[in-house]
Design goal:
The complex is a heterodimer of chains A (265) and B (286). Chain A has 265 residues and is mostly helical. Helices cover 68% and strands 0% of the residues of chain A. Chain A has a domain at 1-128 and 239-265. The two termini of chain A are 43 Å apart. The chains are: A mainly alpha (265), B alpha/beta (286). Chain A binds chain B through residues 3, 11-12, 64-65, 174-175, 177-185, 199-204, 207-208, and chain B through 14, 16-18, 52, 55, 57, 80, 83-84, 87-88, 90, 93, 95-98, 108-109, 112-113, 143, 157-158, 161.
Chain lengths: 265, 286
Amino acid sequence: MLKDITLGQFFPGNTIVHRLDARTKLILVVVYIAALFQATGWISYLAVTAATFSCMYLSRIHPKNMFRGLKPMIFIIVLTAVLNIFYTTGTPVLPGWPITWEGIERAVQMILRIILLITGTFLLTYTTSPIALTDGLEKLFNPLKKIKLPVHEMTIMMSMALRFIPTLIEETDKIMSAQKARGADFETGNLIQRAKAMLPILVPLFVSAFRRADELAVAMESRCYHGGEGRTRMKMLKMQFRDWAALVIGVGFLAMMIVMKKFGL
Amino acid sequence: MSTIRVESLRHVYSANTPFEKVAIDNIDLTIGHGELVAIIGHTGSGKSTFIQHLNALLQPSSGTVFVDDADINADKISRRDVKRKVGLVFQYPEYQLFEETVYKDIAFGPENMKLSKEEVDQRVREAARFVGVDEELFESSPLELSGGQKRRVAIAGVIAMRPGVLILDEPTAGLDPAGCRQILDNICRYREESGSTVIIVSHNMDDVARIAERVIVFNEGGIAMDGSPNQIFCQPRKLMDMGLNVPHSSLIALELEKLGFPVSCPCYTPQQLKAAILAEKEAGIC
């Protein structure tokens, strides 16, 4: 059950998408989102969908993994669709019905927009290792150090948090198995009973999380970690030709979307 | 009565992803009632995956597990009921303690079985006695105890369910020698008094040599050897080829052999080794 959580998961690979610099990919995701929100007509939606699928194809990530990440979002997607179907004014599908043709069109576009938004951003985490991602973030936000923002501390916290997600999931799994072996039941009962049933998991999980945090702090200090001041990196990020090319394509795509919006496509 | 029968068991982790891994494959095994079985094998050989199939915590990718001739994965109810028959103590079980007091923690299992208050109380006291946890400790927090005490409380939590089969995954890992011996003695005593089947996963070959009646060796997701300690430990080289340790006494015997003094097997416990060396001396070789 817990293994289904794909947030922040990384699928190693050696495709052009994997090899792009993390900074490039981060910027491209922002550009992608901006482009996605320019889409108003069917042709522009088609363009974004095509772009998303070609990136997915280039990354060789199996679409099944892509859509597995969508599972937790189904509720939001359905809710948005239903609201849009019923609350858009226009020509009714049948006389006297609250459902309008415009509503249906709007709902389909909304579903498409959410799905594309999620798959596009998942493509980033699927193809970029957490370390590269936080390195990229740190580099991108580096100018903010001028206004005394603790960029290094923030990114190291983020990379540690990402690093420990799988560990904690594994730990939760183990504790759950152990409590199940002692007859704990997490699946039946009403809301209060289920909340109570979580206690045998949460208490050991918190105890071990604190223990881990303590041990990690000691391990880091004993290796002379003292913040970002003067720290060098093993893997230097370096923009390559392919990064600049990808950025140019991305910005070009955004420009195209803006033009399409102007023409109402 | 609790017999375990496993037929062509196979388990694949993360099937259909780049991380796909066959953990165990094609395992056929029968463990009779009341046996004391030790499972050995190096890290990643599939031991832990295997034992989690025995009480339906993991469902096989293919194959069947029978406990008392009933398929434990037949339906939801049999998957639940088997957890009462087969008690599983995980590695480092002290990390699962969560209640405010030792007593409540041991009582967690029996209470989940919906037993009467008196019955629960009786079982908690009995289980605590088996593992040597003093009743004076009942009202203290499990987090205040020492490592060895925590471990024993956690084992008591499983024993309190009175399982017909008790499985322990490395029950002595990380304990000092005295703590190890105490836990193993407690387990042996529990088995004698309750008549349950006991399965121990261990890396400590001296412990295995001392207590086990049957040894099963896992290697690369399958059973490589299965037999009495005599049959297994008299082939020390085969074990070493699989990257496993052998009992210290066997090591000494191997060294003696290198020096030109072959010692006849069995010689994997200190007592046996002593007897074997004395016998050689008697025969007039030395």
